[in-house]
Amino acid sequence: MNLTTGETSLLYNGSDISEIVWVGQSDTSILYINGTNEEDNGGISLYAGDINAIDEAYLIASLPAPYSGLKAVVTPSGNINFLLSCLAWPNGTAYNEELAEEPLSSARIYTSIYVRHWDTWLTERRNAVFAGTLTGADRYSLGGSLKNLVTGLANVTRAESPVQPFGDSGDYDITPDGSTVAFLTKNIDLPLSNYTSSQIYLVPHNGSSLPVPINAFSGSSTPPNAKGASARPLFSPDGTKIAYFQMDGISYESDKNKIYIANVNTSNFNITSLAEDWDSTPDQLRWSADGTSLFVAAPDLGNERLFQVPLTAGPGFKPTNITNAGVVASFYVLPNGNLLVSDSKIWSSRDFYIIGPRGRLVTDLFRSNQVDPELAGLGPTDVSEFYTLGSFTRVQSWVIYPEGFNRSRKYPLAFIVHGGPQGGHYNSWSTRWNFKVWADQGYVVVAPNPTGSTGWGMALQDAIQGNWGSLPYEDLVAVWEHVNSTFDYIDTQNGIEAGASYGGYMTNWIQGHDLGRRFKALVTHDGMVNTVASYSTEELWFMQHDMNGTLWANRNEYDEWNPINHVDKWATPHFVVHNELDYRLPIAEGITLFNLLQERGVPSKFLSFPDENHWVLNRENSLVWHREIFAWINHYSGIKKVMPSDQKPPSAQAISPSSHDRTSPASSDTTIVDEEKNETAEETVRSRTDSESEEENQKALNAAWGKHGRTWMWIGELDYTTIYNYQNYAASDFGEIALLGALMTVGTIVAAVLKPPLAKISDVVGRAETYGAVIACYVVSYILCASARSFGQYIGGYIVYSVGQTGMQILNQIIVADITTSRWRGLANALVSLPFMIVPWCSAFIVDGALATIGWRWGIGMFAIIMPVCSLSVIVPLLGFQRRLERVRGGGAAKVRTKTTVRGFAAQIDLGGMLLLCGGCAMILLPVALAGNSNGSWRAPWVPTLIVLGVLCLVGLGVYESRFATKPAMPPRLFKNISVTLAFAIGFLDAFAYSVTHTYLYAWATVVHGLDPRDATFLTYTAGCVQVLTGLGTGFLMYRSRRYKWLLLIGVVVRLIGYGFMMRLRGADNSLAEIIAMQVVQGAGSGAVGTVVIVVAQVVVPRADLAHSTALELLCIYLGNSTGSAIAGTIYTSLFKGRLRFWLGPDTDPAAINSVYDSITAVVLPETGTAQRNAVNHAYSDILRFMTIAALVASAVPMVMVWFLPNLQLSDKHNLAGSPGGVDSGGPDRRRDTSDETRLQKWRRRIRW
């Protein structure tokens, strides 16, 4: 491959070349192994050549054994020192099976364990590292014989390198000058089968002295806890240091790999650790070109990414990832310091690219799905992810869609559980469990990463110990329930479940529990069914660690998580695969499982391969494996799809468009529903992957809003600011100023509770259509309000107005959220509010002029003409965008739709839940607002009756949403997320505090300070303008710092200080400057709080829940507003007349008191300074004091709440919880700080136990 152009060329066409290394006299010189040997059967040949003249390569030596793992360097003298590995006899000579003398007996005799390992019976032969030298100036030749560098090391066990069964050339290395070799071997002082401990040794390349351990237990600089498995020894470019991994746990194979550096030029090696507190376990390692840092690969949130770690990294250093989504298979540091990376993804078998040391893409060399026509069409839109709350933390799951995926159809669920259990489902290509192959049978695949999974921190991984059947099972149940309640296109009623290894164990465990009844069929591949029989395995440390001890010392643990103990509940059809060469989980487990299923009368089938181990690797066997399993699950799920007998083995061809029908039609008994009639602009944005550029997101935004769509934002803001002020004068004209609190309560209740159903309606009928309905509500409301002949009619018009207003707000909010990353979200939300900086000041002049000329009626009525005209700038582009999208998605074909019944539509928008919510809130808040102004006041029997009924409605809402609602608008799962719950609560309290103090602020400013309508408008909107400015600043700081908790804390503190100022500055003696300063402080605090809580509610949930969470956050804010207005109304109606009598005197004419009470325009008092004017001012100030006290209490509570809010790190991904609309884009910012989450996990555990 040309690293400049990415072009590939054929160097040699044959299967006999197995390994090539760049080494020799020039940059194009190579050394390679030929797997044939004409002199010795079973041996290899070593060749040297040049890639520019490969046909002229020459034979250096014929080696009489099957050596592999070639490593080579040029020495200062010009020779080549090289390393190879091979099985060796106890005497140190290399073993060649074809030349070995067959024993007369086939007996195997053992006095220690291992007896067998992975898929091989152990013999006296062990792997060894052999060293050799090539000499010659123009033509190399083998100088002397190969030297076994490992022989002679033995105690309890013999040394072996590479370590079987998965050891390779990464288990040893050679210095750049060729003088010294490092290799790792299992700890020779400990039994093989019980301990994972291994150590690294140094030895001269010429074998002139015995190997010396670097990290021996007794080493003076060996970290005291470093007793576990070592890995990946690698010399620095100058040969003075060696980097390696080592675990602490002496018998824990999945412990955290810590990074160590040893100085090979010192007697005690001076071992130091790097980034010791990093909550990850790296598994690949390379030095930087200058030797000042390391590049390591580590699992990270379902991917395997590269990180850079400097040699100066202290314990608290948190490495930054430098690669995007995918699993790094290998990488190499180029001479110029750049990195050549090879990775794969669920939808791409192999990609090659070059990046800079900090992750900047230098050259995109090769993308398999772009180069290979058999993979054409596969891409990131085939995959998505989501998070849901599991047993004690968030659990990630991949979602893989079938080809031709259509949201309006239902696809059976394929629920696949990974092995390990310390492992994971990663964003990588597989030729064994290829999710896309499963999906293209006609399933939506969901692949969860429950407790035990790697890549989400050690807390989640280590929690599997002692919890095999508890925490992971609870996680899987939570994922299934999330899928069942969230994804309309997934048919869980006809789903299947499958798993291998530990996933097979979990499948057997599921069979005996409630989740097993949720599936139509199960598949177990090489899974354990009897934990008590686990000592038939080879690596005994595994079960002894995970079960917290030996079988005899902790028998209860083995029994507690034993699937066989629940055999009486087995009932779901079950397919069993178990191979004869699987010595990790011997075939007796599979036969036992199958026998029990047959005896129980459960439909079952058994498949076994005598020549396969834990994995099925033979291509023809893989074909049978896929064909048999798919036939089984398709039968029970109802998919009518048959693999033809001549179909090729599942490989690249198995998922290509030409290989088989990729439209994945649903079966005759699979329901096809019309749950989403349109793919609208917002849904298009939602389906975009986060790997798309900001330019593409901006294009989507422009398409959704249209060329002149921002005009709608300005007109909408102007409408709101003027209507707010006109209603004071409308209420005064009707003599009902006391009902102003009730009016705003009704409006805010309507605006609050309609957000979730309006969001759902827009999903069902389309964004443009919903916008049209919103405009219709606006026009009707203007006509009703402008022509009102009573305050009751005005309230009716205002209710319709609130419907239109809330529809516009929720649609705007969702669109902005869908097209921005979590890091940009706060700033984007603030930018949408930017018109508020100008419009209120313009509206003040408009209101002032309208009241002086045409009156408040025409001031409202003119918007009946302005609003529909301006809204066309949004509706027309949205309609066009929707139509174009339908043509693109439908490939030009007409979109098939089915009729939706009224009942189905009601279920879609959760009509029952919305009625309970609206009714409950209204029956609680309206009596609170109206009681003080009614006959009998609070003693009236209708007041407590309505409140009790309202409480019952809200209790019923909880029951209905969790048990009966098929499409809940308030999904109970959201309230299990502590970040969401706290965001809801803080948003409610902040809105309450604002509303309770500002409902009568305009009236207070007009009466107490004598402000005219324009100046009163300026005052009341000062806080709002500062809020917008602070929101912009908060959004910018969130973008730069990638954090939000500290900004929220500052916001709640400043907000509290603002209400303290209001308590102090509520009188008539304070200057206008002081009052404005009070509003500035309040606006600053509210800007920070409001920006953060919206972002938190949006970024901690998956895309599928974004509309729900956004609507519910706004619901809480509006309920806070309505509650605040209700309390303000109660304070006004209950106390204001009494305070007027107190200050004006008991002999004051009741008509005068009622005049002040009922209307701000009826107040005609002597000039400022008279006793009467001061009395009215005191009465208003007293009322404001009571309201401010309520605000102070409400503002103090978030001070406590904010400490429990997880401080997740914002990224360049759409959200921090995954997104069904797009695969994780990765990027350098895809990381998080788990300190808060770890604390919360411990807190939850204490509560749990």
Question: Brief description of this entry?
Answer:
InterPro entries: 6-blade_b-propeller_TolB-like, AB_hydrolase_fold, MFS, MFS_dom, MFS_trans_sf, Peptidase_S9_cat. With 1249 residues, the chain is α+β, with helices and mostly antiparallel strands.
Keywords:
five-stranded antiparallel beta sheet, Growth Hormone, Chain: A, 1249 residues, 40% helix, alpha+beta
- Poorly predicted runs: 642-714, 884-900, 1218-1249
- The CATH topology of the domain at 684-910 and 967-1204 turns out to be Growth Hormone, Chain: A
Which outline best applies?
Answer: elongated
Q: Which homologous superfamily in CATH is the superfamily of the domain at 684-910 and 967-1204?
A: MFS general substrate transporter like domains
Q: Please outline the major beta sheet.
A: 8 strands, mixed
**What's the arrangement of strands in the largest beta sheet?**
28-29-31-30-32-33-34-35
Oligomer: single chain
* Tally of DSSP helical segments: 33
Q: What is the annotated CATH architecture of the domain at 684-910 and 967-1204? A: Up-down Bundle
Considering DSSP H and I runs of 4 or more, what fraction of the residues is helical? 40-55%
Derived from helix and strand composition plus strand pairing, the structural class reads alpha+beta
Mean pLDDT: 82
Describe this structure in words.
The protein is α+β, with helices and mostly antiparallel strands. Among the domains are: 383-655, Rossmann fold (3-Layer(aba) Sandwich), CATH 3.40.50; 684-910 and 967-1204, MFS general substrate transporter like domains (Growth Hormone, Chain: A, Up-down Bundle), CATH 1.20.1250.20; 911-966. The chain contains 33 helices and 35 strands. α8 (588-600) links the parallel β34 and β35 (604-607).
